[in-house]
Amino acid sequence: MSVSSVPKGGLNQGVIVPLIFQCPGDCECKSSQPKTWYHAKCGDPSFITEFGDILCKNHLKECSGYFFQDAFFQCQMSNKSNTWYQYKSQTFLLLALSFVINAAEFILENNDLNNFINQILKQVHKRWHN
After folding, report:
1. Do the beta carbons of residue 38 and residue 24 sit within 8 Å?
2. Which branch of life, at top level (predicted)?
3. Using one digit for the tens of pLDDT, what is the confidence trace for 82-106?
4. How many Å apart are CA 101 and CA 94, to the nearest integer?
């Protein structure tokens, strides 16, 4: 799961990191372990941009990206019952983003990490009600 596998253009602007966080609180698995998330349409790993957009390596072809707030998630356990979950409040969205930021700490240098954090928080604030 390499960031370099995601072609530039479209939503892939600025810094991107792998999408790693725990299941939403109402998920039937009740897991608090961070996990890598995969794009529902193609099954490839998902990434999140500093603008809060989720995309995969196929985002310029057959898969579209979407803002984190609009995303639905399904882990292996919820897949069995075909149940999807969504972060419905800013509080839980920010909690999930804390796991994304934690994963980014292992990938990004200090300046890129600071820019990523500042930008994603600005975008969540700006785009949450739009």
Report:
1. no
2. Eukaryota
3. 888 777 777 887 888 888 898 889 8
4. 10
Residue owning tokens 């996990």: 35
Q: Is 99 helix (H, G, I), strand (E, B) or coil?
A: helix
CA 117 centroid distance within chain: 13
Whole-number Å distance between alpha carbons of 19 and 3 = 11
Q: Please tell me the distance from the alpha carbon of residue 28 to that of residue 17, in angstroms, as a whole number.
A: 27
Give the three-class secondary structure for 17. Answer: strand
Residues in the chain: 130
In the block, tokens 């941009």 appear at 49
Between CA 32 and CA 109 the distance in angstroms is: 27
C-alpha distances (whole Å) from 1 to each of 57, 84, 115 are: 10, 23, 22
